Amino acid sequence: MITLTDKDIEAKYKITHAIEDVKNILDDYKNDQIVESIRTVLPAGDDNSMLYMPCISISSHVSIIKTVSIFPTNKKFPTTQGNILVTDLNSGEHKANMAASYLTRLRTGAMTAIATDKLATEDARSLGVIGTGNMSFEQVLGVIQVRDIQKIYLFNRTESKAHDFKKRLEDFGIWADIEVVSDADSLVEKSDIINCATQSKTPVYDGAKVKPGAHINGVGSFTPEMKEMDRTIIKRADQIYVDDMHGIKEEAGELIDAVEAGIISWDDIKGTLAEIFDGEYLRQNDEEITLYKCVGAGYFDLAVAHGVMKMFDQ
């Protein structure tokens, strides 16, 4: 069994690889080739959480179980840390133990790329980023794969972290004009695409401020208690899509709240990534507000873990 660190994987496996591998796993999902168990989320005190996600691909003969720790209280270590155990189902051999922090961020960015490509206006040029933690970087990488972003606005509750994030983007070679803003509402007023990646239990921007034609990616909240988006933007959204319907009904705090309040019903969700990834462009006009909500599922992690294994087996 090989052991792969985040650094090992990051040197070889990029956002373009992840996008293709996620599309492949969505095809498997459509064809009933995925066996999975519901993600288990256990509280670990002080707003910390442990997540466990098992999944099997029948067509690829691969199994994974992913373990993730999410510790917002960490000072010396990353907020999110994880590992994936990969098993060959032809032999039962455990093939790899790989760090999952980078892969989690990367597969989520790939999923955002797929949703954004189908839903954002084709001439979208500005991206607003709310929350500049580790998850947000790969979200930016995903969006710039599918739209010609010229301007990036950054907001973080601790402004110094937004400046650090700006430098990281610049050091990576992102050539867009990047600006740190002082409040989230001014960001959403001028952004064609909005990436929101926080673990807030209260909305982080006013949905009434979102401009017509905007596309929103909500990827931060993953428990019923977390609500980084408000009821207003959910009500305003002309089209809502999600990554995985089962996970959304269990974990997407904003949508659960909106359904319970009678603002929307689950039937108002237009579809999932598996239903839209290989279809036509979905936006009806340039004035619609579109929203994509993601909480994650094991088969997305299997997609990138299997992609990494194929690369390292060469």
From TrEMBL:
GO terms assigned for molecular function: oxidoreductase activity
Pfam families: OCD_Mu_crystall
Cellular component aspect of the GO annotation: cytoplasm
GO biological process, one term: carboxylic acid metabolic process
Family: Belongs to the ornithine cyclodeaminase/mu-crystallin family.
Name of the protein in its database record: L-lysine cyclodeaminase
Lineage: Bacteria, Bacillati, Bacillota, Bacilli, Bacillales
